[in-house]
Task: structure prediction
Amino acid sequence: MALRLLLPLLLLAAVHFIAQAQGIGTSASDCCLKTSQRAIPSNWVKSYSLQGPESGCMLRAVVFTTKKNKKICASPADSAVQKLMQDLDKRVKKDKKKGQSPRPRGRSKRQRRQ
Result:
């Protein structure tokens, strides 16, 4: 009798642990699996975020979002990456201070020439 009650509980517990180990039922995150070694042009990038164990990812990385909404993963230990992050922080701070969006308004250079 006790076995009939214990068996379903053990089965339920096993399914629960397997589901957690596979990430089923948890919020899925899109993690970088490797980082790029190439230099990232600052005029391509509009923002960045950090990933690591605290966000559910194994690899610590800086995830840059380009103006075309592509993701580029970079090493946070790279000095060029750190400089790009600082430049983006300054750009965002400057734009907030002015109360403007990061994109320039008005006519483009090409339109002004015509």
Observations:
- The mean pLDDT is 80.
- The longest helix spans residues 2-22.
